[in-house]
Amino acid sequence: MTTFFNSTQPIYLQIISRVLLAIAKGELPPGGKISPVRDMAANFKVNPNTMQKSLAKLEEMGYLYTEGTNGRYVTKNVELIENLKTSLPAEITANYIAEMLDCGMPRDEISDYVSYAIKGGEKNG
Amino acid sequence: MTTFFNSTQPIYLQIISRVLLAIAKGELPPGGKISPVRDMAANFKVNPNTMQKSLAKLEEMGYLYTEGTNGRYVTKNVELIENLKTSLPAEITANYIAEMLDCGMPRDEISDYVSYAIKGGEKNG
DNA sequence: GCTGTTGTATTATTCGAATAATACAATCGA
DNA sequence: TCGATTGTATTATTCGAATAATACAACAGC
């Protein structure tokens, strides 16, 4: 069914994450026009209302803005976007470290563990 | 309100994670009796039904078992628990690496990034 | 002016999570 | 035996997420 999402988190939040990522990676450039709500809903295979909800939240956060009935655009606030580029991986990493500490892993062994996992302990696409 | 949980994931799943962690860390030793449903519900400040749901799932998974009306216990299957000890951090790490790659971070820079974050880039309790 | 596209709003329905309030069955201990 | 404790089951209600089906307002292009 939902090819894009997992079930443990609301879809609209997962959409927000994906759009933020696209903005951070420059796939959605500053000032660039994004697809209409209905199209994005179709692409993500979700209900237009769900898509609308996600985009409205992103607008609240300042990452998107609406130009009347003309369409929706990515913010031109490049500082906000630069900030996103650094804060996204930072948050993910801070979260990861917290989880590992919670697991009982000593702080000074975590990065070694990551090294090991990357080099061959696990198979990562 | 919910001092223990965040809102982006169902509480009963978060409880499951916490119990698994406690088992892996040995805080709940193999064969050890755990608190009654009602007590655990009170401790976690959730509804007894929610607690019951989590414990039932953990039982399905084989980590707990019920002795009639006597109480609930942690499995004596130490191999299962040993497996948990390694698989928990492995899964967390695999997930983390996938997220970082998704962010566009080169594979060979991830562990350095973690090192940096641990040593002082971030403040971690 | 008309039509299509855009964002937005509204109402209703379904579903699962969570809570509440009980009730029941089985065992243990006094 | 009696009562407390245990796990379990049942029914109802509330809430948010998600979907469905529309409807409306505003602008662009013909």
Describe this structure in words.
Two copies of one chain form a homodimer. The first copy, chain A, has 125 residues and is mainly alpha-helical. The first copy, chain A, folds into two domains: 66 residues, Orthogonal Bundle (Arc Repressor Mutant, subunit A); 43 residues. In chain A, 58% of the residues lie in helices and 8% in strands. Chain A has a three-stranded antiparallel β-sheet, covered by helices on one side. In chain A, helix 1 crosses helix 3, helix 1 crosses helix 4 and helix 2 crosses helix 3. The longest helix of chain A has 25 residues. The first copy, chain A, starts with 10 loop residues before the first helix and ends with a helix. The interface between A and B is large, with 37 and 37 residues. The structure holds a DNA duplex (30 and 30 nucleotides).
